[in-house]
Design brief:
Layout (H helix, E strand, L loop, with lengths): L40 H9 L2 E7 L4 E6 L5 E5 H6 L5 H14 L3 E5 L6 E5 L5 E5 H8 L8 H14 L3 E5 L7 E5 L7 E5 H6 L9 H5 L2 E9 L5 E8 L2 H9 L7 E9 L2 H18 L20 E3 L3 H17 L1
Antiparallel strand pairs: 1-2, 2-3, 4-5, 5-6, 7-8, 8-9, 10-11, 10-12, 11-13
Helix pairs in contact: 3-4
Bound molecules: zinc ion (3 copies).
Length: about 325
């Protein structure tokens, strides 16, 4: 009876040729160098049971080159991983991710460098999205949909545009249902508005809306001190000057500013009718005191109606004149 062939440790692997990786699955994957030494029979048995064949020893005494039974791709595996767990063929994994992506209507672009549970995908709209693999599998199964953040922002911007407003960004108070908008086709004031209301148009501008026109309003003078030390005076009208100053005009929380004068007006319409000629008067008499908006851009959220502080007394005198006439009438 013939004896079974005795296992002889191979110290030399003549059939082993570099490069051994049949396809690179990532740029970081190097072509490893062969490492001399025997291949233990229990490694061979474990590899066969787990769907791989050992091509040879590589890199150092801890690594083997495993060829995938399913796809033929050769990858580097730790001997410890082979013996204690199920090695995963990276090419099969990429193929599975490609399949899941296609079933979800996406194209798999690449693995995420920071998390092995995430990849980058090309969405049907052409934008690149980072998504968890599990989410893509759920999309493929029809259990969840896709929302491209870029397209979504464009949708929200055009919703606002259709109502004459400009989407500025998220709500400064952090409510996820609200956004910050500017009344682009109106008075230019900024306002936080629920997105649902922007879609239906069920809101009005608190600076120039119809309700505003009929409600009590104020002319005001405010002083701002820029970080450079330069002082500015602003003349305007608002239903609520304190709120306008705190939530709309002032961008930096620590910029010194104060309301110098409030003159109540019976309606917003009265206020706007009184305010316009004041600006015309100030511009005509003191054109050099009109401050270039570039001076306060990014610090005060308006783009006109700001004067040099040297005009403060003139502004207050004009407001006091209006207050006296209002009392007389
Ligand atoms: Zn494979
Ligand atoms: Zn998109
Ligand atoms: Zn408005």
């Amino acid at each position: 009876m013939p004896m079974p062939p005795r296992y002889t440790p191979k110290t030399h692997l003549p059939q082993f040729k570099a490069p051994i990786l049949s396809c690179k699955v990532s740029d970081s994957e190097e072509i490893p160098l062969p490492y001399p030494g025997p291949i233990a029979p229990q490694w061979q048995a474990a590899a066969a049971a787990k769907g791989f064949a050992i091509i040879g020893r590589i890199r150092d005494r801890y690594h083997l080159a495993l060829s995938c039974d399913a796809c033929g791709h050769v990858h580097a595996s730790r001997i410890y991983t082979l013996m204690s767990a199920q090695p995963h063929c990276p090419a099969c994994m990429i193929a599975r991710l490609n399949q899941d992506a296609a079933a979800a209507g996406l194209a798999h672009l690449r693995l995420d460098a920071n998390s092995r549970h995430y990849s980058h995908y090309r969405a049907p709209c052409g934008h690149s999205l980072r998504r968890q693999h599990e989410i893509v599998r759920r999309m493929a199964a029809g259990n969840t949909g896709l929302r491209c953040e870029t397209c979504h922002a464009a949708t929200e911007a055009s919703e606002a545009d259709a109502k004459g407003w400009k989407l500025l960004g998220p709500d400064l108070q952090g409510n996820p249902n609200y956004r910050l908008y500017a009344h682009a086709d109106g008075c230019g004031a900024t306002q936080r508005i629920a997105r649902a209301n922007m879609q239906t148009g069920r809101f009005e501008c608190s600076s120039c809306g119809e309700g505003w026109a009929a409600a009590l309003s104020f002319l005001y003078a405010m002083r701002f001190t820029l970080p450079s030390g330069q002082e500015l005076v602003k003349l305007g009208y608002s239903r609520d000057p304190d709120s306008r100053l705190a939530h709309q005009l002032r961008i930096g929380r620590d910029m010194p500013c104060e309301i110098l004068r409030r003159v109540p007006m019976r309606t917003g319409h009265d206020a706007i009718c009184a305010e316009k000629p004041l600006h015309a008067k100030l511009r005509d008499r003191h054109p050099q005191a009109v401050v270039d908006p570039r001076v306060y851009r990014g610090k005060i959220r308006v783009c006109s109606e700001i004067y040099d502080t040297s005009l403060t007394q003139d502004v207050l005198a004009l407001l006091d004149g209006i207050a006296r006439r209002a009392l007389d009438s």
